[in-house]
Amino acid sequence: MRLRKRRKTHVNGWRVVRRCVLFFMAVCVVPVVLVLVVATDHYMRPVRHSSFVPQQWDRKEKVIVEEPKLNHNMTLIARRLERRRKHMKRTCRILGLDRHGNDTLHRPNPWEFLVDTKHHLVWCNVFKAASTSWMYNFNILAGYSPRFLKKSKLVPMTLARQRYPRPSLQALRRAFNTSISFLIARHPLERLLSAYRDKLQYALPHTHHRKLGNEIIVKYRYKMKSQNAGLSTQRWPTFPEFVEYLVDSVRNGERLDMHWTPIAEFCTPCMFDFEVIAHTETLHEDQTYLIRRARLERLIGPEWRNAGRGTTADQVEKYYSQLTRSQILQLYHIYRYRISILN
């Protein structure tokens, strides 16, 4: 009897232990296993795009998620652009550049403006400051198709002027009152280097700029011999030769090429009340804001078209280190108003 009792007590004890183990597993292990199964199923399950969900519903969900952030960014961009506009107006007033006169700094110049009366857009085309990109946009707004623009052998400016003739000063001022006006600024020394590389270093044969390059070589290569150990063998003007030519042109009162004319004389921004002043450093955001502000999202988009010869900003040190201190100071004197008013 005692043996049976001992065995029974021993068996009951193991049952209790086994039940405790099973209870522990049920409470702790099973939920963990279920979580792992669900998670594995979630990540291993192939992504399926439901064909029966309307596309409009997808767009609506996307707008709900992204719109607040986008609106917040647009507000910040608008504030930045407003600060630029106020800075330009204030600096123009301090420097006296907002007063009318007979020189190129004080006489309004409507020559390079494009006025789109249909879409209420006014743009001063500053060459080498996203000009290729926005010439394309304006041609799209003019009704040219992307396919036509890609195949056409005509210069984009020629096509644009067929639809946007050069405005008179009176017509331009009227357009400023009813349109969104903008220009795109670029640091003058970076713009100058871009113009040099595009128009002289990589000039196409039998073009005006190839001829100009040859003239610069003839006049300045031997003149600068004393400053260099040997003469350059390049078939295009060196950057110091080009800068020497530019400085002499300004000193002699000659009219500068439109690709390196200072923007203060080219667009005379102090003579007009531009609404948007975009910078190439923040071009994507500035363009996005401008396009939304003009409600042209369905027609054009932010563009950045270049010749594909590398980023000019990465080449600044290489080229400007070839100049003397005197040449750099002379360049600053030429472009000082741009640096001041469109900072």
Automatic annotation (TrEMBL):
GO cellular component: Golgi membrane
InterPro entries: Carb_sulfotrans_8-10 (IPR018011), Sulfotransferase (IPR005331)
Subcellular location: Golgi apparatus membrane
Enzyme class: transferase
Spans through the membrane: 21-39
Main location: Golgi
Topological category with respect to the lipid bilayer: Single-pass type II membrane protein
E.C. no: 2.8.2.-
One Pfam family matching this protein: Sulfotransfer_2
GO biological process: carbohydrate biosynthetic process
Keywords: Carbohydrate metabolism, Glycoprotein, Golgi apparatus, Membrane, Signal-anchor, Transferase, Transmembrane, Transmembrane helix
Molecular function per GO: sulfotransferase activity
Similarity comment: Belongs to the sulfotransferase 2 family.
Protein name: Carbohydrate sulfotransferase
